[in-house]
Amino acid sequence: MSTLSRIALALVIIGALNWGLIGFFRFDLVATLFGGQGAFLSRVVYGLVGISGLVCIGLLFKPDEDYDTVTTDRRFSNPNYGTEFGEEPDFRKERDVHKKTDDKDDIV
């Protein structure tokens, strides 16, 4: 996320908290801090929050980098559906291999 997006998101959060205070307690924090709703600084803060909301609309439709990257990880390409119970190695193959080599030694 770019620095501009982070600043815009912070201002949108500030605006959301201010609207929450207005909705629940009828208290406008921005107007209280900057001299009323009609004061120049209050209007600047309201304007910046509005512009930040427009910037954050772009974040809503931005693809997520975590999910859109192509992975070359092949650990799930050949899943093992077996369980650890009842799967024993086949020792007959090893016994047969040893038996064949022992037979060759006997022939010589």
Question: Can you walk me through this structure?
Answer:
With 108 residues, the chain is mainly alpha-helical. It has a domain at 3-63. The chain is 66% helix and 0% strand. The protein has five helices and no strands. The longest helix is centred in the first third of the chain and has 23 residues, at 3-25. The model has no long low-confidence stretch (mean pLDDT 80).
Topology (SSEs and partners):
Elements: H1 3-25, H2 29-34, H3 40-60, H4 65-68, H5 91-107
Helix pairs in contact: 1-3
List keywords for this structure.
single chain; 108 residues; mainly alpha; 66% helix; 0% strand
Average pLDDT rating: 80
Number of strands: 0
- Ends: how far apart? 75 Å
Unreliable stretches? none
Radius of gyration equals 34 Å
| Helical content band | 55-70%
Overall shape: rod-shaped
Largest sheet at a glance?
none
Strand content: under 5%
Structural class: mainly alpha
Helix count, DSSP H or I runs of 4 or more residues = 5
The sequence of SSEs as H and E is HHHHH
Quick take:
The protein has a domain at 3-63. It has 108 residues and is mostly helical. Helix 1 (3-25) packs across helix 3 (40-60).
